[in-house]
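Dear Dr. H.,

I hope your travels went smoothly. While you were away I took the liberty of generating a structure for the chain from your last submission, since the lab meeting agenda had it listed for discussion. I wanted you to have the full record in hand beforehand rather than looking at slides cold. The sequence, exactly as received, is reproduced here:
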Amino acid sequence: MGKFIYFPSFSAGEYGDKLKKDFKFKNGFSCRFYSDDFPEKYRHNQVLITAGAHFKTDDYRSKLGLTKDNLVMGDSGGYQIASGAMKWDIKHRDRIFKWLEENTDVAMNLDIPPRLKYQGKYKECLDISIDNFKYFDKHQNGSTKFMNVVQGDDEVTYQNWYNEVKNFEFSGWGIGGAGGSLYRFMSGLLALLNGKEHLKPNNEYFHILGTSKIRDFLMLIQLQKSLEDVGSNVTVTTDSSSPDRAVVFGTFYTNFTIKNATFQSINFPNKKHNGDIINDFSVLPNKNWPRLHDFDDVLSEFVGWDDVVKWDPDCTIGMRLHNFYVFKDAINQITDYVYGHDYILEQVVEKDIYRVLRSIDEMVKSDDPKRVFETYKPLYAKLSNMKKQTMAREVDFWS
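The corresponding predicted structure, in token form, is as follows:
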């Protein structure tokens, strides 16, 4: 039911290192959730890898054991550039482009997001991004389906960015800057719907970069359903590293609530912060950590509190897998509700979120999505952190 795809972005940090080394738990169980060695019931074939962290590593796809059976999404490294983790240099462009073509099936263009270290440099980011898009457009050989990218801060700047890059021939669109801001997401979506991008046969994907909250999943799955209702060919996708990164802080997901749109969690003990009680866990009658998901039955065969006490890879990789499957459960449950009857959906989500979902459906099905956007604009602002806008707005791009 539904084509929506979540791409786990686990290729950096400890998990990325263990995936590359084909880490096995004590009983030989693989940490590669996307491989044929993983139980079919839990196998997840879609993965995101990032050029920002790995473009200097040749044959990276094979090093992770990814095959033709996996759908591999490539991030170009724009976020790493915006955050300062990677300094932009034109000399990297060709290598990033070739790395994406050699290692991925679908990939983002190399855009420079106008935020973080580039906040307030909208025009500079747009100019560099256009130059990169021209390069990708000219040199693509068809082995990878590249996506155009739209960035901005509001409905005006997203529309302007879209107007400047819309004529490139790619296989879909990425919406940048949407993570954590409902207003930016709706603004980016508006630019694409206003341009009828969802109805163009060459567009196969709308990828919303770096979103992973319950509210995000509700909105993206609603978008997928609405696009299917109008016969669109587009598959909605997103990515995040949240189940992976949470473990850096000792976070173990326990549940999620759709009504409150939150993941619930506890902190696992560690020697540094809980030295006075950590050894108590070694003598617990039940050696297994909490069973909160049926995948924990698999983990319990070879991971337990002894591993938590040692804080060894069996513990940390096990936590990451557990968190990931809680994420998958949330997505599956949300899909059931969104594709079910509105009578039920209206009861299980918060009232304002239900109105947002209806607005997405109206925008997709309207001949005038801007009119729908303007109708719901106060709601989007209410549910967003509306910081002072810093991007230039000297021209009415709608005229």
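Two observations you may find useful: Confidence is low (pLDDT under 50) at residues 388-399. The longest strand covers residues 251-257.

With kind regards,
E. W.
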